[in-house]
Structure formats: structure tokens, C-alpha cells
Write a structure and sequence with these properties.
heterodimer; A: alpha+beta; C8orf32 fold; seven-stranded antiparallel sheet; 18 helices; about 40% helix; about 15% strand; B: Leucine-rich repeat, LRR (right-handed beta-alpha superhelix); eight-stranded mixed sheet; flagellum (chain B)
């Protein structure tokens, strides 16, 4: 430790020296200026003088005094009590920490102070561990560490520590940081740690030292992660299996000596090449090395440590919160660790950091390496499992002890909340620009840009970002399925990538921006699985078109077309003026259903030469292929004309000379088919040309419209759904209003009885209440009476019927008897109903009475009189 | 309808008629002109129509080898015959004739469409060899038994069927009355359609009409039980057939391994079937227990042979497959190299010919031509070199293979012989024991001490010592002979297999392939040279 402090001291001195330097320089400059002014200017040298003056003036630079921002003040009212005050337990912890600090300072006088009790936004001291508030957000994107760290890096704007060598005096809560959308490295780490712990990671905030680049989030020396080439999976060439009867290769008759000499030469050249390359690389590396930093080793930084073991983390690693990238434990960018903490405990590093963080051990249970603050939260990490069983008994004892000891109070920070909208905006104002080595990355929130742009990567050839080489734009949610467009400024090539789902299944489109019209150099790649014609790729140049196919039923896999110069037409043009086709070359895969000697492999329609050339597939046992050549009959292009053929129009080479030659009729038939086929192919070519034009037209229209697609589940943005929902809400509101209107003013008749007095005084109020209640009472009783009357009436009728039945029972038919029985049962049923109704009424009546009384009490017009009876 | 023709003189299918028909139905216009000039070969004709010709007998069609469609409708044919050579026939129309029985179709295995409309057929039969039948028309015939149609169930691909106008389709409403001359009146039998639909589930069209789902469902409902029974029976049949096939396959495999019937007591039984004495001797007291033990041991040894045979067979097959794989690979590689050479040359040729058409200077032209010929010679050298290399490689590989295979075979034979001699030993031991028992028994018989009853024919053997010993040893001889035969069988067959295989490899792979390749190369080179010559001539003219 003492070594380190010595180093720091010396560095400080250096710094002090250097601080004076610039002033010296300026003074010198002034002096020079004065001398120059005294020298008499000679004729003709004025030009030179002006140049000189310019150069001198260039030297003088005005350095703006650094604006010292007044510390941001927060309105105390905004915050909860927990922010403004300390609970007794928190106070206890603070005192404990203070005690720890004092002992620490006493024991290790030469060590730097620890970050223990910084003040929060309300100026209240809070212990750092309680500032971590483990939270799980509702967004699945931030469930994993990479998503969470990327989110934190994107969401916040970075404020450097001021001065860079001192610990911050103030540590804001994560909620405030999220509101401001900016923070220093400690606030970044605290927020990220809160999220990671909430998601189950074993994460810690680290306080330590780092390089200047890391502290200032200067990534200009890093290669943009988007540009890093993925390591191509090295495919090991499957070594040819040596089978039992594999034939021996022919004898090698070349001279071994010559070979050796040749290989030696090659090796020499390669070595030279490698040497040169290495030198060059070294040169570049030298040039790119950051300038020496006077504060090297003193710059304070904070980052996050994730330990292995939880959430399937196999190996511990750091996360740099400012960039959101993972950093291996043996990195060069971190120079030392002072302390680290999570929401439960605080550990101070006892290991030597003179060689950076390399070789440090993170066994937090080992108190020779890590001095912990709270006994209770000690957790033996990385311990050999054997100890566990052994420890079991002790633990119980310990538990008793720990109860007496201090444990960590709950976090004073409120739960971290982020709205969906804010989450989707990602960066402050939805935009963020990052600078990398020779490249610039701009990020935009989804739906922020009208054309769906979400990221733009510009690659430059120089470190000053002036010489633009290429631009890559990434899009999301575009209706035309475009997701990536690259433009190379040097070659003028544009490459566009599309998702599947476009009308003509376009996958990639490469063209020159300066010549984007049809019949120019371009390459289109298609989703061939989705296309009926199985088109995979179409390459074009002004005079050529090549199409590649896959999985076609007719085994075609390649078609090459050679165009001629467009004939100049005079006068009014009839129909489209196509380029004349000179040659169509088609290639086919082998069709196993027909013999190889009949299966065309290669078909050339040489339209210019009026010839058709056929090459057949090679049979399995042969090495050469049969060919045929037809000369097209002169009248082949006439429609409906009968083709004429003479034997000299056909020449052939047959691999098997013994095979019986084809009959003239068959050849004639073949020729007719071929002529028809040529016509078809020509039509296909025209179709292809048309398709290219259509695609380009579509693209033009889409580019102008640049519409975005919105998921039906996105209630925020889907205008249609929004409208629909609003409409529903409106209807509901109307319905409610209507119902309110419908509600009868039960007091109205009584007020009317009193002659609609302008103002209701207490007396009238009581009278109103009385009247209303008596009225209700009367009505309730009336209703009960009514039910009773009906009941009695029915009973009477039943009794009468019974009497009648008894009298006439003797001479009654069975049907009549049945009628009577059913009548009786129905009557009884009705009587039961009446009884039930009456009972219910009796039960409900008092409730209704009470309810009315209550309502009158609460009626807006009368309430004042019944408030305090 | 056919009655109409009764009065007309029947005609015979002769050369003239065929020529005329072929010419009429052959290619038209320009193609026709060319064809006529060249002459049409009957063997090339794909389809032939001979309708309304009053043909009585199908004859003289043997030269139409590749015929796929034959129309013989509206004739007075009485018997299906003379079609045996037309094996490629797919479409056969014999409607409107006087045919009385289905026959003579045995060779037409590719037939898909058969029309026998308006004939006098009374029974569907003799069609088992038409597995591809898809369309069958037998309307207006004299089929009177509806059950006969179930015969068509065997055609799994039958889609279209016409049965209209057969007696079973009609129900007699009014009988024929000869007195007032009124004819019988029929209406359609309502039952026959559902019956057919239910029994022939593969049908899509019946009597020109599509069978819709409802009709099919109703029909299935109606004949539900009968159909189920039928399908069950068929399934049982199918299963039996499958089992039989599986067994046959297994047997073939065993046979290929030269150990068929060795997995059971077959050989043991075979020893005793021709051995009358042995059977008699088995009745001797004490022999049957001995026989049981003997059989057990014998069968176990047989089984050893069986297992060993199968195992060896697998090894041999693997060896052979490996060899073929390697040979194929070598040939493929060689072919690829050859093709590469040829393609390179073809590219060169294409460029050169294009160049030559533009050249006018005779000197340059000659130079180019000489260079072409030189390069052609080089190509020949290269191709021949490749071929020679391949021949060498194959020869070596074949030699290796032959050595290994003969090792395998001889070790198999040796081991087999070892096992078989074990069998022989068993037999010898058995023989000795039997001899002992028989002598003891003889003594008992002589002394009349024998307790058990023995059969009369066995008693006859116990006349004297010689007789019984003779009987026992003759039984023994027969047994040994059987075992020897089996051994010989195995040895000869495996040797034969190997020599056949090796001859085939030598002939096919070495000699024949080499000759073909050499002739191919020469042919190609000649052609290329010729091409240059013709071009040269043309240029010379210019």
C-alpha cells in the first residue's frame, strides 16, 4: 500500500509541475510576438509575415474557464420521508460505518478514504449499501445481465467525476438518477447493481481506479462492437477417411529437392512479409497509443463485479456500466480496487493492486483478502465444500451471535420504476451518439425517426472522423421490411437487407447509388424458398443478366443472358423497346428419371447466330458428354409457320458410337420443342426485366412513403386501436352520463310540496326528510298490505274450489279430478310465492328505509344540515 | 350392335392395314413428310388405332414393341389374344366387340386403362396381373352376379369404374312376354351403386359420376358389417402374406450365409428320414433316452454352425461393400479428373474456333491448327494416362480384396468343417453306444430275458449278431453320408460364390470398363479432330 501512495504523491507533484506549463507557453508566445512586432517588415516578405502572424496567432489559444456548475439543488418536498430523514437503525449503521472508518484511517493511514456515507439528494448521509435497491423490472429485455447493462448504458448520460481523483461527495438515489437520466460512474454502478441483484445475480459495486479512457467513457480507441467480425467457425476439412481398399494415389514423380527449394523460398518470402506486417502493426499501435496520462492510477472509477455461482454465471466478470460491456477479470483498464459492496455488506480490499486488478482473488469470505464491515452478512464464498458440513454446527451458534449484531436496514430508496414509454425511448430524448475508433454510432429509439431508423454506424478512415468510408443504417418496424442499409462512399455501392415477407421475396439488394435505375449493375438476392420460380440471385450488368435458381422442378439452376445494343427506333414507338437478346445460356441439374444421355445439362440459345447448342449430362461410366447442335430454321420466328428442316441443320457427337442414331422425325420433334423452349425462355427474360423494374418502382414508392408497421398489441402507437379504444371510452362515458340523468330525483316531489323554496334551511330540511321517510314507510306498508290482500283473495278462491270439489266429488270423471288436483297444486304454488314475497319484503323494508335515510343525509342539498347532528 | 357386322366379311390385320393406320395416325405436316421419307418403324409407334375395321382376330401386332395405346374398338373380336408381346401397353380399348371372357391379359402388367364396354362378358376374372389398373369400363356386358365385382377389390389404384347396363344393375319390372311381343321392362337396381361404393373404397367415379361424401357414407353405413368382416379377413390374409415374405427373406439370408435350416433339428431329422433301420433301432430299450441326449447335443452344434455362418456372412458382406465403395470412389475421382481435362480443352476449343472465324492469314491459321492438334494429342495422352492409372489402382485393390476374401472364405470353411467333424464325432459316439446296446439286447433276446415288448420288425433284426451289426452300421453310414453331403454343399457353394464374384470383378471392372473407356476416349478425340477438319474445310472455301 505504501508503495502505491508514494507513486501517487510523485504523480501529484508531476501534475503540479505540468499545470504551470501552459501558462509558461503562453507567456513565451507573447514574448515572441512582441519581438516579431519590433522587427521591420521587408517588402515582399509581407506574405511571409502574414503567414508567420497566422501561425503565431494559431498558437494563442483562449481556454475557457471551466464552468463550475453549481451543485444541483433538489426540492426536498418532492421526496419521501425516507429520503429526508434517517431511521434509528440507519443512524446506527451510519455510526457503525463512521466507527469503521475511524478505525480504518487509524490502522491504514496511508490509504485513501473509503466511500461510506455520502449524502443523498436531500443532503442526508446515507450508507452506500442502503442505496442499492434490488429491483426487478417488468421488461424481459433487462432480465439478463447484458440486457440490463446495455439499458443502463443507453438510458443515462454520463457525468464525469469532478475532480477525477476524488470520491464524489454525493451519491444520488437510483430513482433520481433515472429521472435526471444522467449520473456519474457510482450512480451508474448503483443502478445497474440494483437491477442485477434484483434479477438474482451476485453483483457488487466496485470502487477503484481506472484508466483515463475508461473513466471518461472514451471509446475512441475501441473498435465498435458492431464492426467486430465474428470469428468464423474454423471448419476442419473432413479428412478423407482411409478405407481398406482405397486405391493408392499415383506415384509422385516430381523432384523432392526442387520442392524443398521452392518451399524454402516461399517460407522466406512469407517471413519477410510477416516481419513487414508486424512492423507496420507496431507502428500503428504506437501511433494509436493514448498519450501518457498524468493522473494515471489516480482516477477514481466505479464499476460492477458479477461473481460466479448464481444465474448460471460460470465465471466471474466485471461490467463496465458506462458502456454496458463485460470486461474480463484480468483487464488492463481497471487499475485497482479500494472497496466493494452490495446491498448487504461492505468489503475493503486488502490485496496489493500495484499490478492492476490482475491476479486478484474475489473470495469475499477470506478476511485476509477482504475486510468486511458487518459480521452478520459474512458469507464464505468459494470455500471448499468440505468445510460446509463441518460448519453446520457452528453456524447455529453464530446465528445466536448475529442476532445481537447489527444487520443492514432496508434500502431507503423507493422502488425503481420505469414506464414503458421511457423504457422504449432508451436514451435521453431517444438519441445517443457514441464514438469509437474510426467510427461513430448513433442510436435512436424505436418509432422516433419517421423512417424507422434505430441505429446508424458511420465508419471513417481516419481517427478524426473526417474521411467517411461507409455508413450502415439499421431500421426497425419498417413496412417495407428493410432492416439494414449499407452505403460505401468509396465504391458508391448500396446494399440493402430485407426481412422475409416482401411481395417479391427480396432479401438483399446491391446497387450503385449513382446508377440506381434498371439495366444497371446490381445484385438481388431473394428468399428462394418462398418463390414459385425458386430464384435465388439475380446479377445484372448493363449487357448481362445472370439468374441462379434452387430446387426447381425442371432442374434449371442457372440462366445467363447476354443483351445486345438497343436498336434505335425512329418514329412513334410501338410497345416497349426491349434490349435485343443475343444469347441465353441455361444449365440444368441431373434428372435421374431419364438417362444421362437424354438429359440436357447445358442449353445455349445463340439467338444472334441462330443456333441452338445442347450438351447432355455425362453418364456415370463416361468422362465425355454428348452434344447436339441445331441451326434454327429460317422461319422459326414466324408465328404459325411450319418449321422446315433438312438433315444438314443438325450435327451431333455421341459418346457411344454404337448407339443407334435418332430418327429424323425425332430430331424434328426435338427442334420444334427447342424453338418453343427458346420462345419461352425469351419471355421469361422479359418477365425478369419487368420484375426488376417493378421492384425498383416499389422501392421508390416505399422509400417516399417510409411507413412503419405497428403491432396490434402496441396500444400506445397503434392509431387505429387507439381510436377504437377512445371511442369505447367515450361511449362508456356517455352511457354513464345518461344513467346519471336517468336517476330520479327522489326529493323533487317533496320540495315541490313545499313550493320549491329557493333555499333550503335547516327546518325545511328536516321537514323534507320527515316527509320523504314517512312517504316511503307508507308505501312499504301499502305494498305489504297489497301482497297480503292478494294472498287472502287466492286463499279464498282455493277454499271455494275445495268446497265445490267436496260436494261434487262423487259424480266426477277422472279427468275432472285430475284438473282439480292440478288446480290445487298450482294454487298452493302461488300462495307459497306470495308468502315468500311478503317475507322478503318484510326483510328488505327496513333496509330500504335506512338506505333512504342515509341518502337524504348525504344529498348535496341537505347534507350541510345533517353533517353534525 | 355387333350383329350389324355379322353379314360383313371380317378383315384380317395385315401389313397394308397397319401401314395405312400408322401413316394416317403418325406425325403431320413437315414431320410427316420427313417421317414418310424415312419410313416408320413399327417398333417406334406409341399409339395405334384400329377401329371400325371388322377385325375378327387380333393378330400380327407382335412388332409394335413400344406401343402404349391400342384401340381396337368397334370390331367383331371374339377373343382377347395376340397381345402378349405388347408389354408396354397402358391403354387398351376393346369396347364394342363380341368378347365373351376376359383372358389373355397376363403379360400386360403396365396396363392402367382397360375398356371392355359393350361385350358379352359374364364374369370378371383373369385380371390378377394388372396391379396398376386405374380405369376399368365393363358396362353393357352380361355380368349378372353383383358379388363378382368384389373381385375388383384387389386393384388398390382403381379410380374409375363403369358397370352401367349390366344385368345386375337392373330389376325386372315386367317380364318378357313372347305372346304380344312386348319386351321385358327394367328399372335400375337401387342396391347396386351403394354396394359397389362400399366394397370398392378406392373408387372416385362410378358410371361417369363422381361419388360424393354423402353417398359414400350412406353406402358404408349400409354394408358396414359385411365390409368389416371382409376387411378383417383381408387383413389376416395380408398379415399371413407378410409373415410368409419375412420368413422367405430370412430363409434367403440364411441361404446366402450357407447355413439354411441349421438353426433347428432339420439336419438331424434329415438323417433319420431315409434311415429305416435307425428308426427301427430307436425302439430298442434304452435307446430313446440316449437319442434325446444325442439330439440335444447335435442340435446345439448345428446351432453353433448357424450362428457362425451368419456372423461370417455379415463380415463377408461388409468386406464386399467396402471394396465396392472404394472402387466407386476411385472411379468417381478419376472421372472428375478426366472431365476437368475435357472441359478445359472444350473452353480452349470454343475460344479458338471463335478466333479462327476472324482470321484470314493462312500462315497464322495453319499455326493455330497445328497447335490445336498438338493440344488434342496432349488431351489424349492425359486421358489415357488417367485411365492407365485407374487400371493399375483397381488391379491392386482387386488383388488385395481377392486375397482377403479368400482368407475369409477359407477360414469359414475350416471352422465349418471343424464344427461338422464335431457332429461326426457325436455320431460316432452315438453309433458305438447303439452298437453296445444292440449287442446287449441281442444277448437278452437270445436268452429270452427281454422284459419289454419290442416291435415285430425290430425283433426280426435280432436274428444273429451280423444282422444287427449290419443294421446299426448301415444306419451309421447313412448318417455320415448326410453330414458329408451338407459339408460338401457348404464348401462348394461358397467357393462357387467367390469365384463368380471374382470373375465378375475381373471381367466387368477391369476388362470391360477399360475397353469402354478407351474406345470412348478415342471416339472423342476422333470427333474433335474431325470437327477441326470440317472447320478447316469451311475456312478453306472461304
Amino acid at each position: 500500500m505504501s508503495e502505491e501512495t508514494e507513486k501517487i504523491d510523485t504523480v501529484n507533484e508531476h501534475e503540479a509541475d505540468e499545470k504551470i506549463d501552459p501558462e509558461k507557453g503562453v507567456e513565451n508566445g507573447d514574448g515572441d510576438n512582441g519581438e516579431d512586432g519590433e522587427a521591420p517588415p521587408t517588402e515582399g516578405d509581407i506574405q511571409k509575415e502574414v503567414e508567420n502572424l497566422k501561425a503565431e496567432l494559431e498558437k494563442i489559444k483562449v481556454e475557457q474557464p471551466k464552468e463550475v456548475l453549481p451543485e444541483e439543488k433538489f426540492d426536498l418536498e418532492e421526496f419521501d420521508q425516507s429520503y429526508r430523514e434517517n431511521l434509528p437503525k440507519e443512524k446506527l449503521v451510519l455510526a457503525y460505518a463512521e466507527n469503521f472508518r475511524r478505525q480504518y484511517v487509524h490502522l491504514y493511514r496511508d490509504r485513501k478514504p473509503l466511500l461510506l456515507n455520502p449524502v443523498n439528494e436531500c443532503g442526508v448521509e446515507k450508507f452506500v449499501s442502503t442505496t442499492i435497491r434490488p429491483t426487478q423490472l417488468q421488461f424481459p429485455e433487462v432480465y439478463d445481465w447484458d440486457g440490463a447493462s446495455e439499458f443502463v448504458a443507453d438510458y443515462l448520460n454520463f457525468e464525469p467525476l469532478n475532480p477525477p481523483t476524488d470520491l464524489p461527495k454525493r451519491l444520488l438515489s437510483s430513482t433520481t438518477v433515472l429521472n435526471r437520466q444522467k449520473g456519474n460512474c457510482f450512480e451508474y454502478s448503483t443502478l445497474l447493481c440494483s437491477l442485477l441483484i434484483g434479477n438474482g445475480y451476485d453483483a457488487y459495486v466496485v470502487s477503484g481506479y481506472a484508466t483515463k479512457e475508461t473513466c471518461l467513457m472514451d471509446e475512441t480507441r475501441e473498435i465498435c462492437p458492431l464492426l467486430q467480425k465474428k470469428e468464423e467457425a474454423v471448419k476442419e476439412a473432413a479428412k478423407k477417411e482411409v478405407k481398406k481398399y482405397t486405391v493408392k494415389p499415383p506415384k509422385d514423380l516430381t523432384s523432392k529437392f526442387e520442392k524443398m527449394m521452392a518451399s524454402r523460398k516461399v517460407a522466406e518470402r512469407e517471413a519477410e512479409e510477416a516481419k513487414r506486417r508486424k512492423e507496420e502493426e507496431e507502428k500503428i499501435a504506437e501511433a494509436e497509443k493514448p498519450p501518457p496520462d498524468p493522473l494515471f492510477g489516480l482516477r477514481i472509477h466505479s464499476w460492477v463485479l458479477v461473481l460466479q455461482g448464481k444465474r448460471e454465471v460460470a465465471e466471474s466478470f466485471f461490467i463496465e456500466p458506462l458502456t454496458g460491456l463485460s470486461v474480463p477479470l484480468d483487464t488492463h483498464q481497471y487499475l485497482g480496487i479500494e472497496s466493494l459492496w452490495n446491498h448487504q455488506n461492505y468489503w475493503v480490499n486488502m490485496q496489493d493492486c500495484s499490478d492492476g486488478v490482475k491476479g486478484m482473488k474475489y473470495d469475499l469470505g477470506d478476511c485476509t483478502l477482504w475486510e468486511f464491515m458487518f459480521q452478520s452478512n459474512e458469507k464464505p464464498l468459494l470455500e471448499i465444500p468440505e468445510f460446509h458440513d463441518h460448519d453446520d454446527d457452528d453456524e447455529e451458534e453464530e446465528e445466536d451471535e448475529t442476532e445481537k449484531q447489527l444487520d443492514m436496514p432496508p434500502s431507503w430508496v423507493k422502488a425503481i420504476k420505469i414506464t414503458l414509454r421511457d423504457f422504449q425511448m432508451r436514451c435521453p430524448q431517444g438519441k445517443k451518439i457514441k464514438l469509437y475508433k474510426k467510427s461513430k454510432l448513433e442510436k435512436f429509439a424505436h418509432y422516433l425517426q419517421k423512417d424507422g431508423l434505430t441505429a446508424k454506424l458511420s465508419v471513417y478512415d481516419d481517427n478524426e472522423l473526417k474521411d467517411l468510408v461507409q455508413v450502415k443504417e439499421f431500421f426497425n418496424h419498417r413496412l417495407d421490411k428493410l432492416y439494414m442499409r449499407g452505403y460505401n462512399h468509396r465504391t458508391d455501392w448500396v446494399i440493402e437487407h430485407y426481412y422475409p415477407g416482401r411481395q417479391r421475396c427480396l432479401k438483399e439488394h446491391t446497387y450503385k447509388r449513382s446508377a440506381s435505375g434498371p439495366e444497371n449493375e446490381r445484385t438481388m438476392v431473394f428468399y428462394h424458398e418462398a418463390r414459385v420460380d425458386g430464384l435465388l440471385k439475380r446479377e445484372e450488368t448493363p449487357v448481362e443478366m445472370t439468374e441462379h435458381f434452387k430446387n426447381r422442378d425442371d432442374f434449371l439452376y442457372y440462366r445467363h443472358i447476354l443483351f445486345g445494343k438497343r436498336a434505335k427506333k425512329f418514329g412513334p414507338s410501338e410497345g416497349p423497346n426491349h434490349r435485343p437478346i443475343w444469347k441465353i445460356h441455361e444449365k440444368f441439374h441431373r434428372n435421374k428419371d431419364i438417362p444421362a444421355n437424354e438429359d440436357i445439362a447445358d442449353l445455349v440459345f445463340s439467338i444472334q447466330e441462330e443456333k441452338i447448342l445442347l450438351t447432355y449430362h455425362t453418364e456415370d461410366v463416361r468422362v465425355s458428354a454428348s452434344t447436339r447442335e441445331f441451326i434454327k430454321p429460317p422461319n422459326a420466328d414466324e408465328k404459325g409457320a411450319t418449321l422446315l428442316m433438312t438433315p444438314d441443320m443438325h450435327t451431333t457427337f455421341q459418346v457411344d458410337p454404337n448407339q443407334s442414331s435418332k430418327k429424323q422425325v425425332e430430331l424434328y420433334q426435338m427442334l420444334v420443342d427447342l424453338v418453343r423452349r427458346e420462345e419461352k425462355s425469351r419471355n421469361k427474360v422479359r418477365d425478369s426485366e419487368q420484375e426488376v423494374r417493378d421492384i425498383l418502382n416499389d422501392r421508390m414508392k416505399e422509400e417516399v412513403a417510409s411507413e412503419l408497421e405497428i403491432s396490434v398489441y402496441d396500444t400506445e402507437r397503434n392509431e387505429k386501436a387507439k381510436k377504437h379504444r377512445k371511442e369505447l371510452e367515450r361511449l362508456q362515458l356517455e352511457e354513464k352520463m345518461r344513467r346519471q340523468d336517468m336517476e330520479i330525483d327522489y326529493l323533487a316531489p317533496f320540495i315541490a310540496q313545499l313550493g320549491d323554496p329557493e333555499k333550503i334551511n335547516k327546518e325545511t330540511a328536516f321537514r323534507l326528510k320527515e316527509a320523504a321517510l314517512t312517504d316511503l314507510k307508507k308505501r312499504l306498508i301499502d305494498k305489504a298490505n297489497l301482497i297480503q290482500a292478494r294472498f287472502e283473495k287466492e286463499t279464498e278462491a282455493l277454499q271455494k274450489k275445495q268446497l265445490w270439489f267436496q260436494q261434487h266429488q262423487v259424480n266426477m270423471s277422472p279427468e275432472d279430478e285430475e284438473d282439480y288436483m292440478s288446480y290445487c297444486s298450482e294454487m298452493m304454488f302461488r300462495l307459497n310465492i306470495f308468502e315468500a314475497r311478503l317475507n322478503r319484503h318484510r326483510e328488505l323494508a327496513p333496509q330500504k328505509y335506512m338506505a333512504l335515510e342515509q341518502r337524504i343525509r348525504q344529498d348535496s342539498r341537505l347534507a350541510e344540515f345533517f353533517m353534525n347532528p | 350392335m355387333s350383329r350389324l357386322y355379322d353379314t360383313v366379311e371380317p378383315s384380317v390385320i395385315d401389313d397394308d392395314m397397319l401401314h395405312k393406320a400408322v401413316e394416317e395416325q403418325g406425325p403431320k405436316e413437315e414431320a410427316g413428310r420427313i417421317a414418310k421419307a424415312e419410313g416408320i418403324d413399327f417398333a417406334d409407334v406409341k399409339s395405334l388405332r384400329l377401329d371400325f375395321k371388322n377385325i375378327l382376330k387380333i393378330d400380327n401386332l407382335w412388332c409394335f414393341d413400344s406401343l402404349t395405346k391400342l384401340q381396337l374398338d368397334n370390331n367383331i373380336i371374339e377373343k382377347i389374344e395376340g397381345l402378349d408381346t405388347l408389354t408396354n401397353l397402358i391403354w387398351l380399348d376393346l369396347s364394342f366387340n363380341n368378347i365373351e371372357a376376359i383372358e389373355g391379359l397376363e403379360k400386360l402388367t403396365k396396363l392402367q386403362d382397360l375398356t371392355l364396354y359393350n361385350n358379352r362378358i359374364s364374369k370378371i376374372e383373369n385380371m390378377d396381373c394388372l396391379p396398376d389398373l386405374q380405369v376399368f369400363s365393363i358396362g353393357n356386358n352380361e355380368l349378372d352376379e353383383l358379388e363378382n365385382v368384389i373381385y375388383l377389390r384387389r386393384f388398390k389404384r382403381l379410380k374409375t369404374l363403369n358397370l352401367n347396363g349390366n344385368p345386375f344393375c337392373k330389376v325386372c319390372v315386367q317380364e318378357e312376354n313372347p305372346e304380344d311381343g312386348s319386351e321385358a321392362v327394367y328399372t335400375e337396381n337401387q342396391d347396386y351403386r351403394p354396394f359397389i361404393i362400399a366394397y370398392l373404397p378406392s373408387l372416385d367415379y362410378l358410371d361417369y359420376r363422381l361419388i360424393d361424401e354423402n353417398t359414400r357414407a350412406a353406402a358404408n353405413e349400409k354394408y358396414h358389417l359385411a365390409i368389416e368382416e371382409l376387411t378383417h379377413n383381408e387383413e389376416v390374409e395380408n398379415k399371413k402374406e407378410e409373415e410368409r415374405q419375412a420368413k422367405e427373406k430370412e430363409h434367403n439370408l440364411h441361404k446366402a450365409a450357407y447355413v439354411e435350416n441349421m438353426d433347428g433339428p432339420a439336419l438331424f431329422h434329415a438323417m433319420y428320414t431315409e434311415d429305416a433301420e435307425g428308426q427301427k433301432l430307436a425302439d430298442m430299450p434304452g435307446v430313446d433316452e440316449m437319442l434325446v441326449v444325442y439330439k440335444e447335443k447335435y442340435v446345439a452344434t448345428c446351432h453353433q454352425i448357424f450362428e457362425y455362418g451368419l456372423q461370417e456372412h455379415e463380415r463377408r458382406m461388409e468386406e464386399v461393400n467396402q471394396f465396392w465403395d472404394c472402387i466407386e470412389e476411385a472411379k468417381r475421382e478419376n472421372k472428375e479428373m478426366g472431365m476437368k481435362q475435357i472441359n478445359q480443352f472444350m473452353e480452349y476449343k470454343k475460344r479458338l474456333f471463335q478466333e479462327l472465324t476472324h482470321l484470314t492469314d493462312q500462315q497464322v491459321l495453319d499455326n493455330k491448327i497445328t497447335e490445336y492438334n498438338k493440344r488434342l494429342q496432349e488431351l489424349w495422352d492425359k486421358l489415357m494416362g488417367l485411365e492407365l492409372q485407374l487400371v493399375d489402382q483397381l488391379e491392386e485393390a482387386t488383388k488385395d480384396f481377392e486375397r482377403n476374401l479368400s482368407d475369409l472364405v477359407s477360414s469359414f470353411i475350416e471352422n465349418c468343417q471343424g464344427h461338422i467333424s464335431a457332429l461326426r464325432d457325436l455320431e460316432n459316439i452315438h453309433h458305438e453306444k447303439l452298437l453296445e446296446i444292440s449287442i446287449v439286447t441281442l444277448e437278452k433276446v437270445v436268452k429270452n430275458e427281454l422284459d419289454e415288448e419290442i416291435p415285430e420288425d425290430l425283433r426280426l433284426l435280432f436274428v444273429d449278431k451280423d444282422t444287427i451289426i449290419n443294421a446299426v452300421s448301415s444306419s451309421h453310414d447313412i448318417h455320415l453320408l448326410k453330414i458329408d453331403n451338407r459339408e460338401d454343399d457348404i464348401v462348394t457353394r461358397i467357393n462357387q460364390w467367390m469365384s463368380q464374384l471374382m470373375t465378375k470383378i475381373h471381367e466387368e471392372e477391369e476388362v470391360k470398363r477399360n475397353r469402354m473407356r478407351v474406345s470412348e476416349i478415342n471416339n472423342l478425340i476422333d470427333h474433335l479432330r474431325e470437327e477441326m477438319d470440317t472447320l478447316d474445310l469451311q475456312l478453306g472455301y472461304n
